Amino acid sequence: MAPIGTLNGPMPNPRNYKVRVVAQFLGLELNTTPDFVMNVDNKTEEYIAKFPTGKVPAFEGANGFKLVDSSAIAYYVASQAGSNSPLLGQTAEETAEILQYMFFAEADFMPALAGTVYPLLGYMPYVRPSQVHSEEQLFRFLGVLDAILLTKTFLVGERITIADVGFTCDLAMAYTTYLTLEDRKKFRNVTRYFKTMINQPAFKA
Questions:
Q1: What residues pair up with 24 in beta bridges, in sequence order?
Q2: Main-chain dihedrals φ then ψ at residue 109, nearest 5 degrees
Q3: What is 74-112 written as a DSSP string?
């Protein structure tokens, strides 16, 4: 099978990873840019001509279609498996629920996680009140997710969807950089869910 397109952006990046995992789940071939240098390659005239915002990751399809934003790209890649793509909703209700969790991850969870972790990693200035507030929000959202997963294996229905792939990639930063053993026990449903997801073959490829 010919590649469906090229994913532009640095490889060790959770947003890039999200799209690649979706492709792996569906057996789709995707070209990547392992030598991509952030803040260099995405500032070239050629790149800006294709993707005016300069954002990464950015996708260019084999048919010339161009797209930015990792969630939009992941959704588009998932759609390339056809109308019955196993990662997408099969009804209007399932689709809406999938989008609900994708928006929750992007608009609520990730800003709280970034505000908690980035100052400690030197990615942004450390301002204690802001960092503490972000941590409070992070733990609140983890609590919400933990309650949701109390009676669920996956977020939507009884199968893995793109919502699970995206949220797992976001949770990876929390589990690898911040959450203590005590935190993992406290949010045991999230921890069980995270372990279930990262042990899927597509996450290991």
A1: none
A2: -65, -50
A3: HHHHHHTT-TT-TTS-SSHHHHHHHHHHHHHIIIIIHHH
The three-state secondary structure class of 191 is helix
Neighbours of 43 (CB within 10 A): 11
The Cα diameter of the chain in Å comes to: 52
| Phi and psi angles of residue 7, each rounded to the nearest 5 degrees, phi first | -100, 115
- The sheet carrying 58-61 orders its strands as 31-32, 5-8, 58-61, 66-68
Nearest to 178 by CA among 150, 138, 127: 138
Local confidence pLDDT in tens for the 205 residues of the chain: 789 999 999 988 888 999 999 999 999 999 999 999 999 999 999 999 999 999 999 999 999 999 999 999 999 999 998 878 899 999 999 999 999 999 999 999 999 999 999 999 999 999 999 999 999 999 999 999 999 999 999 999 999 999 999 999 999 999 999 999 999 999 999 999 999 999 999 998 6
Positions of E strands within the chain: 5-8, 31-32, 58-61, 66-68
Cβ pair 142, 190 in contact under 8 A: yes
| pTM, rounded to two decimals | 0.93
User: Concatenated DSSP letters for 32-44?
Assistant: E-TT--TTTGGGS
